Amino acid sequence: MEIAINYWAVLMGGIASMIVGGLWYGPLFGKIWQRESGITDEMMAGAKTKGVAKSYIFMFIFALISTYILAHFIAIQEVTSIAGALSLALWAWLGFQVPIHIGSVLWDMKSMKLFMINALYSIVTLMISGIIIVSML
């Protein structure tokens, strides 16, 4: 079975993920995320002076991988509607990402608030990527 992947959609999904991340961990929830993560202003300033380009590059690569895999699932399931993409994104998030995110609460002693910030970021980016993918079919 040959699976057709729209690489432009994957690229757009990866870019969207980075934009959402910048907003999510910046003006929307940045201060709460920083506090709940135990990251001080000094640590943030130190990260900025070291340069974060490498981190952004790696994050973008993984955003592309995630979007590509979602596009693959959408193609295999023959999803063609936004509702179908949202449903698939929800199930993928619930089955694969929530169990990983909850580990930070159970084992790293992180708060449920931090779990919610990170887990909801994941579902939002998956859903936006899913919408982009099916919109570009």
Give the helix/strand layout.
Blueprint: H1 7-28, H2 30-37, H3 41-50, H4 53-76, H5 82-106, H6 112-135
Helix pairs in contact: 1-2, 1-4, 1-6, 2-6, 4-6, 5-6
Report the end-to-end length measured between terminal Cα atoms: 18 Å
Radius of gyration: 16 Å
Give the % helix: over 70%
| Number of continuous helical runs | 6
Number of distinct beta strands: 0
Run of helices and strands: HHHHHH
Structural class: mainly alpha
Shape: globular
Q: Kindly report the average pLDDT value.
A: 94
Give the tally of structural domains: 1
Quick gist of this model?
The chain is mostly helical and 137 residues long. It has helices at 7-28, 30-37, 41-50, 53-76, 82-106, 112-135.
What does this structure look like?
The protein is mainly α. The protein has one domain. The chain has helices at residues 7-28, 30-37, 41-50, 53-76, 82-106, 112-135. α2 (30-37) crosses α6 and α4 (53-76) packs across α6. It is globular and about 50 Å long. The two termini are 18 Å apart. The model has no long low-confidence stretch (mean pLDDT 94).
